[in-house]
Design brief:
single chain; alpha/beta; two-stranded antiparallel sheet; Rossmann fold; transferase; 7 strands; Adenylat/UMP-CMP_kin; kinase; about 220 residues; five-stranded parallel beta sheet; globular; binds adenosine monophosphate
Length: about 220
């Protein structure tokens, strides 16, 4: 089972993604998290990527594409949920070519639809749990509000990602996401156009519903 998930930063992509991941026991391959791991480990790749990430820009394709394709190749037998990649039409095409070449089938492509201004407010409210980055905490969303200044799931310490508090960086990231010509939405639509012919299902989720509503709809679609 192989799944691509698209959604602007702030759309609940991580939350919905982990649902699909658990249901099918998939490897969660998240390009942003791979970069953060490299940065944390002080690798050469991490050092190169950091300058772009801090500015809210895409890390260049010659670093990103081989890194992600390599992780995909080495993923578990159950398949993967790919999150944060592809983020441009070029990445979409390269991924498609690599999948075709290796005879890897896509099963679902999920797109979370959310207006840009709503996504921005959600990002600025997002908090990161030190114990588990998948624990959802957001000071701007009542259903997942932190417990005081602690993680609502485990009581762990919370921090805000520096790039989540930088409006300029958020706008830059959304400029890339909402770009339907060469950006991330162009990548999503590239797959939308292929869905029927290639035999995978393209699922559109309304990101403005409650987390539970979106989850239920997603479960009903993942047959
Ligand atoms: P994220 O955690 O998905 O918000 O990613 C954090 C940052 O990592 C992004 O703002 C980019 O700088 C970089 N990044 C993640 N995925 C990609 C990608 N597919 N292509 C280029 N840069 C990426």
């Amino acid at each position: 089972m192989n799944i691509l998930i698209f959604g602007p930063n702030g759309s609940g992509k991580g939350t919905q993604g982990s649902l699909a991941k658990k249901k099918f026991d998939l490897d969660h391959i998240e390009s942003g998290a791979i970069f953060r791991k490299h940065i944390g480990g002080g690798t050469e790749l991490g050092l190169k990527a950091k300058a772009f990430i801090d500015k809210g820009e895409l890390v260049p394709d010659d670093i990103t594409i081989p890194m992600v394709l390599d992780v995909l190749k080495n993923s578990s037998a159950n398949g993967w949920l790919l999150d944060g990649f592809p983020r441009s039409i070029v990445q979409a095409e390269k991924l498609w070519d690599a999948l075709q070449k290796d005879g890897v089938k896509l099963d679902y492509v999920i797109e979370i639809l959310l207006p840009r201004e709503v996504a921005k407010a959600r990002i600025m409210g997002r908090r990161l749990c030190a114990t588990d980055p998948n624990h959802p905490n957001n000071i701007g969303i009542a259903a997942i509000a932190p417990d005081g200044d602690k993680c609502r799931v485990c009581g762990g310490a919370l921090t805000a990602r520096a790039d989540d508090q930088d409006e300029n960086a958020i706008d830059k990231r959304h400029n890339i996401y909402y770009d339907t010509k060469t950006g991330t939405l162009a990548a999503a639509y590239f797959y939308k156009d292929k869905a029927a012919e290639a035999g995978f299902k393209y699922i559109e989720l309304n990101g403005e519903g409650s987390i539970d509503e979106i989850k239920e709809f997603l479960i009903s679609q993942l047959a």
